[in-house]
Amino acid sequence: MIKRFLLLLLVCATQSSVLWAQSTPLIRQLENKRSDLQKQIAEKETILKTTKKDVGSQMKALSTLTGQIEERKRYIADITGDVALLDRELIALQRQLVGLQNDLKEKKNHYASSVKYLRSNRSIQDKLMFIFSAQNLAQTYRRLRYVQEYATFQRIQGEEIKRKQEEVTAKRRQVESAKASKQKLLEEREREKTKLEGQEKEKQKLISNLRKKQRAIQNEVAKKRKESQQLNARIDRLIAQEVEKARKRAEEEARKKNAASRKSGGKTPAKSTGSYTLSKEDVALSSDFAGNRGRLPMPITGPYIITGQFGEHTVEGLSYVKLDNKGIDIQGKQGAQARAIFNGKVTAVLRLGDGLFGVLVRHGGYFSVYTNLSSVSVKQGADVSTKQVLGTVFSDKSDNGRTVLHFQLRKGKEKLNPMLWLNR
Questions:
Q1: N or C terminus: fewer CB in 10 A for the chain?
Q2: Do the Cβ atoms of 317 and 335 come closer than 8 Å?
Q3: What is the pLDDT of residues 217-247, one digit of tens each?
Q4: How far apart are CA 284 and CA 365, in angstroms?
């Protein structure tokens, strides 16, 4: 019975230690994550907004402000998720605390019973009478062992009570720590909501001002649309050329394979179909690229804001302003650099208007496009690795150093939404 009781104490102690180890890292992990997110938000707030009054600059300011608002909404949603996690953690900690308190109470009761028993049988004569009243030598030995083990058991009980009391105290501190962390998150969420309200008001003020300049806005949008169409037509031609080259490489690979098979006397493989446009090497690279969907790094270094969304959409508050973006626009800090999102080969370095550049990188059957660069650090035909710098993003000194990378992603000729592929 004593051995079973000691084993039970050991199991309870082990389980309590495991629960302690499991709960502590969550709070520490959330605090570390929150520190990183706070740093990111602070860095993104330093990204410049224009103060110029012309329509083009105000439209850019609106896109930047909209991007910052979306980032802050995501941050608030993240805080809400962490609060929910802490709520569940608090429930688990409270249950563990109650369990530890019940264990402590039970141990104290057992200890009190043993002390009471010893008080009633505390004399040496009582112990000796108990031992020597045995009927034989074997029973005498067992009774002697029982007296010794009972004394040891009582000592262990006292030590277990002390250890359990320390566990209860530590668990209470842990509960209080979780409550404090939750309160800090709630206060931070309220501060972020206040900042969000201020940004929303600023946005509405800007929209109200822009509504008075409908004709100027439409002219600005038409100008940007024309520039975008010219750029996309050029990218489409380059990608079409690369797709054709890939088709020829695949056909050449299939031809060599057929020739080798005929030479060895084997069965001639079926002829390549028009849908087979990638070589074996390109197929492998495409598979690796597709396997990283949602995990590809951002194509810009440092803090950033998404200021231009993919696809056709109207500008919020300006329903007559319709945009069609074949990629996304990413605003960073001055000095930000464009970087490759995956291993690949530079298939073209584009010279754009106003001394700007663009880089086209092929990843098997996929293509990534980086434009609005003031300089490039790679050459056509060069192999690049994931996160390798391709060039420096242009900073417009006439617009308070606004630094925006235009990024596109294609699968062959198909235009993809980069937001579904990048890890934010």
A1: N
A2: no
A3: 778 778 888 888 888 888 888 888 888 887 7
A4: 10
> Distance (Å, rounded) from C-alpha 139 to C-alpha 316?
92
Tell me which DSSP letter residue 419 carries.
Answer: G
* Six-digit token string for 279: 């070589």
pLDDT more than 90, % of the chain: 25
CA–centroid distance for 184 within its chain: 22
Q: What pTM, to 2 d.p., does this model score? A: 0.68
- The SS3 assignment for 246 reads helix
Length in residues, the chain: 424
Tokens coding 77: 């949603």
Task: State the residue for tokens 């600005």.
Answer: 220
Structure tokens of 21? Answer: 């180890």
CA distances from 94 to 99, 237, 323 (A): 9, 64, 53
d(CA 245, CA 253): 12
Which positions ≥6 away from 39 have C-beta within 8 Å? none
CB-count exposure of residue 62 (10 Å: 0-12, 13-18, 19+): buried
Q: Measuring CA to CA, which residue among 381, 389, 387 is closest to residue 362? A: 381
